[in-house]
Amino acid sequence: MGLTRHQAAAAPKVFQLKHRLGEATVIKLLVVVLKCFCDSVRVPDKLSAAELIETAEVLAATYTHDSIKDIMLALKEARVGGYKFYQSVDAGKVFDIVSSYFEKKVDWLNSQHLDTKARSTSAEHSAVAQLVAAGAAVGGIGQRLDPTHPNHDSLRRKLTITNGKARRGLITPEQAEQQRQQVQQANQRKARTDWQPHAAAQRRIESRNTTEDRRLLAKYSQPNQ
Question: What is the DSSP annotation of the chain?
């Protein structure tokens, strides 16, 4: 109740909780958060016990430098903000909700940075500015994805995770760029403009076309009575 972005941003990060409480306890906490979220959503198809644990493990491994309260707030905003669940809550929707939340968090950090920039030029504000720039780059890459691609959501989620890890120093710039290139390669859909039927099929097609042409010619070339 009353959880805000300021509180979520100030809360202990996942990697700090792992060091203090142990990884198993952190995963248990995330399982409780996910279970409460699933129970609060009125849909018939929800995450199973095994899926809850697996989803919690992925979240703990991906968002190490964000807080559990960030994830709680992401799920809460989705539930009260009209997110379309379409009768089910699965891991893909949870990841989509969380990644969308962190994209919005970049905009929020940008707003905070602009508000404090006139009052201070400390190193903390420089770090926020770098985070905002990284977020803008994420948006630019995301806009280049084909919105009609059948795997658009998963490609967008992979980009978000890749850039999040790059911002936090979990992967090198070379590794991040390699993963972005993999996404862009998967995003390309080459049209098969060089496809042609084999010779026998082509002859059958031409024969049918010729027969149809003759039928239409006989039908519409009769002299007017």
Answer: ----HHHHHHSPBHHHHHHHH-HHHHHHHHHHHHHHHHHHS--SB---HHHHHHHHHHHHHH-TTSBHHHHHHHHHHHHHTT---TTB--HHHHHHHHHHHHHHHHHHHHHHHHHHHTT---HHHHHHHHHHHHHHHHHHHHHTS-TT-TTHHHHHHHHHHHHHHHHTTSS-HHHHHHHHHHHHHHH-----TT----HHHHHHHHHHHHHHHHHHHHHH-SPP-
Tens-digit pLDDT profile for residues 197-224: 667 777 777 787 788 777 767 766 655 5
Question: Using CA atoms, how far apart are residues 104 and 77, in angstroms rounded to an integer?
Answer: 11
Predicted confidence (pLDDT) per residue in 120-163, tens digit: 655 555 555 565 555 545 444 444 666 666 776 777 777 888 88
Contact 55, 91 (CB under 8 A): yes
Please give the structure tokens belonging to residue 139.
């948006």
Token look-up 């559990």 returns 68
- Is the distance from CB of 91 to CB of 51 less than 8 angstroms? yes
CB atoms within 10 A of CB 141: 17
